[in-house]
Amino acid sequence: MEQNFTESLNLCEFELLAGSEPQEMTSPNFPNNYDANLECAWSVTAPGYNKVINIAFTTLNTEAEYDYIEIFDNGNVTQRYSGDVRSPVSYQSTPGAIVTVTFNSDNSVERPGFRALYSSELGECQSPNSCRAPPTYYDIINNDVPYSPGCTFREMYNKRWICSSLFFN
């Protein structure tokens, strides 16, 4: 006789806004043990243009192989962690990314989970106009190419604008 059963999942979703000061993100019930059958997601965004999101796990203790954390950068899995990780784990997103941290637990062993600090800072491009999307043909012929003090578009290569910074003393 075949038995069918459905495990009840505990779902949780969080939307976080990263600023320049580190803020805390934890698994449910931390520092106590998390619940079984968790499926949680933290969506982390940063205000402004071209920010990178930094995430530093200060504690990471899950059931190895079965309970895990994944980090998504613009929808792509970039990291996966499971078990008792003793050394600090840190991650920096690509500029302008939305980072999603997911946490999944199975139906058996529970542990404390994780504690992480998240923040944001300006990415590689140092001004809002320095590395925008390439201008259109209309922008070029109408001389409406974006300009930012200290940065100028130098050349067009493979239909992409290459931006180089100019520094003045």
From TrEMBL:
Any one Pfam family match given in the protein's UniProt record, by short name: CUB
Coiled coil, from the record: none
TM stretches of this protein: none
Alphabetized UniProt keyword annotations: Disulfide bond
Gene3D superfamilies (UniProt xref): Spermadhesin, CUB domain
Domain CUB residues, every copy: 12-121
InterPro entries named in the record: CUB_dom (IPR000859), Sperma_CUB_dom_sf (IPR035914)
PANTHER family xrefs: COMPLEMENT COMPONENT 1, S SUBCOMPONENT-RELATED, CUBILIN-LIKE PROTEIN
Full protein name: CUB domain-containing protein
Organism of provenance: Ciona intestinalis
